[in-house]
Amino acid sequence: MALPENPSAAKGAQVLALFGPTSIGKSEIAVVLAERLFGSGRRSVIIGADSMQIYDGLALISGAASPQQRERAEHRLIGSVPIDSEFSAGQYAQLAHEEIDRAIEGGELAIVVGGTGLYLQAALTEMPMRPPISQSTEQALQEQLETEGEQALHERLAAQSPTAAARINASDHRRLLRALALLAEGHSLEDQDGGIWTSQLRHPTRLIGLTCDRDELYARINQRVDQIAAAGAGDEVSAALEAGASRTAKMALGFSDLQNGDLEAMKQATRRYAKRQLTWLGKLDQAELIDVGGRSAEEVAEQILSSASPSAA
Q: Which fold does the domain 7-129+201-249+267-306 belong to in CATH?
């Protein structure tokens, strides 16, 4: 498929991509957008771009669209992977491309929504995927993390790839272990999370980046953690474990903290993750940044639609 020239600036975008940190309100804004578009005669479908919301059984902890939100607008790639399955960005890319292409072929606007940067990139581009890491390498590194600690492993990464270590926080175990595994199996980290990729979008796309004041965002995160805990997120984790949650499913942010009943640790980890998401957002070339601070989903959706070209809205 030929790539459109400067696709994010193209009129009549076929894809609307919403990216932003956790707890900023992406799900509700996407639903309101879908409702407003439907009211003006434009059909749309919401396609998830989140590494944990795609699992069936992690709706609360991952902040997936609620049953009520899913009744208001069609969602795809939300809760569609069994909890006991291993899942990767490469597998997701294939599914996302199929769903986006199906939506476009059906005359619908594909609203791609997520907070996992790698999954957003995988959904919107023909991103080359790295080969899978052997289970023995993953197991060995996991054991080293448990015995030596995150700081020791981060120092090892810094010795081998200072550039990668500078962009991967020691507390981000998933990315830390992934980088070390790639190095252990002879792969380069030169292009890991690097470079501007938005010139290679598969379809004409509007990229919307949602932001807000850091203090407000952290307050939203703290409130969300309390809310999902009260709604039964701890029981959700127990049920996932009982159902044989896979290694990748158990990487969900806050999974182990909820298992241990430590909400403060979950809040701290989520705030750190949001900070990394905001950093990643800053690398999105051609993205339209929208401050959602103190505003309703309806107000934000109205701004997005009113700033679109007539053919895109």
A: Rossmann fold (3.40.50)
